[in-house]
Amino acid sequence: MRRSPLTLAALATAALPQLDVVAARSPHHEGGDFAVASILDSAGARWVVRCPTTPAAGAAMEGEVALLESLAGAAADGRLPFAVPAPAGFARLLEGGRAMVYPELVGDPLEPEALTPGPHLGANLGRALAALHELPVSLVEAAGLAVYEAEEVRRRRLAEVDAASRTGAVPRALLERWEHALENVALWRFRATLVHGDLAPEHVLVVDDRVAAIVDWSESHVGDPADDLAWLMTAAPEDATEAILEAYSLARTVRGDVHLAARAALGGELAVARWLLHGVRRGDEAVVAEARAMLAELAEVVAGEPPIGPERPRIQAGDSGMAQPPEPEPTPAEELSERPV
Length: 341
Hints:
Blueprint: H1 5-15, E1 21-25, E2 34-41, E3 46-52, H2 55-76, E4 89-92, E5 98-103, E6 108-109, H3 121-134, H4 138-142, H5 150-166, H6 172-182, E7 193-195, E8 204-207, E9 210-214, E10 221-223, H7 227-235, H8 238-251, H9 260-282, H10 285-301, H11 332-335
Antiparallel strand pairs: 1-2, 2-3, 3-5, 4-5, 6-8, 7-10, 8-9
Helix pairs in contact: 3-8, 5-6, 5-9, 7-9, 9-10
């Protein structure tokens, strides 16, 4: 169910009866599974009201609320260098579930194309993501959110590619490229971490060349840390992504994930396939057409590029995917992920 900013403002006052709303507007972005509005009260304070539009989104938000409490504790004791939403109240919805209200966090949405190499925002972003991935996975487990180990992540990606293939909209060259990476055992040896799961420019708020806050945690889970870097591999300049990866790897205490950048690159490409599947599931022909155009453009862009990841033996029938063949010599880009402190 879609709701207008005025309806969301009414939910905000139901959640916080003392709130005297004087203005309400839609934010600069809309979450696909959430209706969101920015609220201004008579004291000049700004609030965000976030309301799930589907039962699945409502369930996801309940897990998000549980996780946010733990993340706020990590921010308070210095383990996280950025702020997260702090729920101040809730309003029950007639159809079930509830809307959440929290103080609006300070910052402007990140502009990936403006990222530069050097000790600036890119490096700060890398360290911020590393701090997130250093948190114990027990925080996600306690919140009742999903946990996916490395092999399960790989199989889920294979299922996504299979589903996209069945639409007939994905160029054969892209399918072969993705299948090569997904059948490559070496790429999928990593330690699963807490991940945000839906990082995008509008979810990362910046102030003065630093990450000030990260919002919208409903897709959080334990999984591949590369997922939180994938959006940057497609949106940020190449020299900036190298700086981000270097800062990230230096801030991690766990070493040896030499294929982090390769999996992030794959994740950035698969995001287009997910957009296609989203359009198919919703029956939205405009989204499907847009995704088809994006896939055709992507196929042209990567046509002359080498395969994702090293040339490795592929998984044979009956192989669980957990074999341990000798590691190849890492490339300079891969060395960023295991550079000593």
